[in-house]
Amino acid sequence: MRVLVVEDEQLMADTIAEGLRRLSMAVDVCYDGQQALERVGVHGYDVVVLDRDLPLVHGDDVCAAVIAAGGEARILMVTASAEVEDRVAGLGFGADDYLTKPFAFAELVARVQALARRARPALPPVLERGGIVLDLPRHQATRDSKYLPLSPKEFAVLEVLMRAEGAVVSAEDLLDKAWDENADPFTNAVRVAVMTLRRKLGQPGPIETVPGAGYRFA
What we know:
This protein has helices at 10-21, 33-40, 59-68, 84-92, 105-117, 152-163, 171-178, 189-201, and strands at residues 2-6, 26-30, 47-51, 74-79, 97-100, 126-129, 132-135, 140-143, 146-148, 207-210, 214-217. The chain is of the alpha/beta class. The longest helix is centred in the middle third of the chain and has 13 residues, at 105-117.
């Protein structure tokens, strides 16, 4: 999934982003509300982790703008305030969930994954096809009940391909969904990730190359 983390405390934002990336999420980060509005206007996110008290543009206004734009991003609003009135107000602006600081990282991950499962269309927590099982909450992949030691990026690429349910996924789409905005579109990162993923999946190989179009999980 692709996540946007919006938090003005840079260390916290970067720490959250790094933790989510280890779970094979593509994560972009910004530190104020203006940057957040620019990002959501360019990229399609599954979940936005949104601090409520932001500089330049308040988190409530960012939330309202995301909802008004009609995108499919789910919003997890984060704030230091534990007051019921503040939680109600945040949800009133369109947030899907609310998390109070300080919080355990495991809880944030659980809430992000839960929101992603409520995307349109709903995303199942476990994907299974051809003997390959991708357990997203546990971040674990198996083939015929044997553990697959996938890297975070290989896991992310496999998730995108399996979610396509047999449709062709272009290299550009893989780059957009499995890498963050800092990825160089002219690198061979996608080809290398698919190559190493194929090696780990073994035979018969479930990933087909469709010349001039991309890749398909058969």
